[in-house]
């Protein structure tokens, strides 16, 4: 189960979300095997297609810090049931950590648990060098 530190990081990102168009805030926070936490919020844009999901923001932060994977991810929303990653985010998460545990939680305290691979059967991947 996610630590209170990881949950707090996801909740803080949720609070900071920039969602003036959908008003649908999402926070994401991931923990690496070394215990580092990276968080992200959804960041929308007047040119709607440029909006970026919270999970993508968190992956960008993690990778930009030189990390190449995570053990746990919390996706925090006020939806019921809790929001789960969109298809684009599932591919982006799979790139780094198909085995990671994903906890989709909401402000009411509901929690759904999956692995990244659960979300993306028969995923596309390429050999890396
Ligand atoms: N969105 C996320 O940030 N994470 C999810 O898991 C589901 C959807 C955002 C919310 C809103 O900004 C929408 O996707 C725009 O792309």
Task: Please give the count of helices.
Answer: 4
What does the overall shape look like? Answer: globular
- Strand order of the biggest β-sheet: 2-1-3-4-5
The average pLDDT score comes to: 98
Number of strands: 5
Largest sheet: 5 strands, mixed
Task: State the order of secondary-structure elements, H for helix, E for strand.
Answer: HEEHEHEEH
List low-pLDDT spans: none
> N- to C-terminal separation?
33 Å
Function: This enzyme scavenges exogenous and endogenous cytidine and 2'-deoxycytidine for UMP synthesis.
Catalytic activity: 2'-deoxycytidine + H2O + H(+) = 2'-deoxyuridine + NH4(+); cytidine + H2O + H(+) = uridine + NH4(+)
Cofactor: Zn(2+)
GO molecular function: cytidine deaminase activity; identical protein binding; zinc ion binding
List the helices and strands and how they pair.
Elements: H1 4-16, E1 26-31, E2 37-41, H2 54-64, E3 72-77, H3 87-96, E4 101-106, E5 111-115, H4 116-119
Parallel strand pairs: 3-4
Antiparallel strand pairs: 1-2, 1-3, 4-5
This protein binds tetrahydrodeoxyuridine.
Notes on the structure:
The chain is an alpha+beta fold and 129 residues long. Helix content is 29%, strand content 22%. The protein contains four helices and five strands. The chain has helices at 4-16, 54-64, 87-96, 116-119, and strands at residues 26-31, 37-41, 72-77, 101-106, 111-115. The protein has a five-stranded mixed beta sheet. The longest helix is centred in the N-terminal third of the chain and has 13 residues, at 4-16. The mean pLDDT is 98. InterPro entries: APOBEC/CMP_deaminase_Zn-bd (IPR016192), CMP_dCMP_dom (IPR002125), Cyt/Deoxycyt_deaminase (IPR050202), Cyt_deam_tetra (IPR006262), Cytidine_deaminase-like (IPR016193). Zn(2+) binds at residues 53, 86, 89. Belongs to the cytidine and deoxycytidylate deaminase family.
């Amino acid at each position: 189960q996610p630590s209170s530190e990881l949950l707090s990081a996801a909740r803080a990102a949720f609070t900071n979300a920039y969602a003036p168009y959908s008003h649908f805030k999402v926070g994401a926070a991931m923990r690496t095997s070394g215990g580092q936490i990276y968080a992200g919020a959804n960041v929308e844009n007047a040119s709607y297609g440029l909006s970026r999901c919270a999970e993508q923001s968190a992956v960008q932060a993690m990778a930009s810090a030189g990390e190449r994977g995570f053990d746990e991810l919390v996706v925090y929303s006020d939806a019921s049931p809790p929001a789960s990653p969109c298809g684009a985010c599932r591919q982006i998460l799979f790139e780094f950590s198909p085995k990671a545990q994903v906890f989709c939680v909401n402000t009411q305290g509901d929690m759904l648990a999956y692995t990244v691979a659960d979300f993306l059967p028969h995923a596309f991947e390429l050999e890396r060098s």
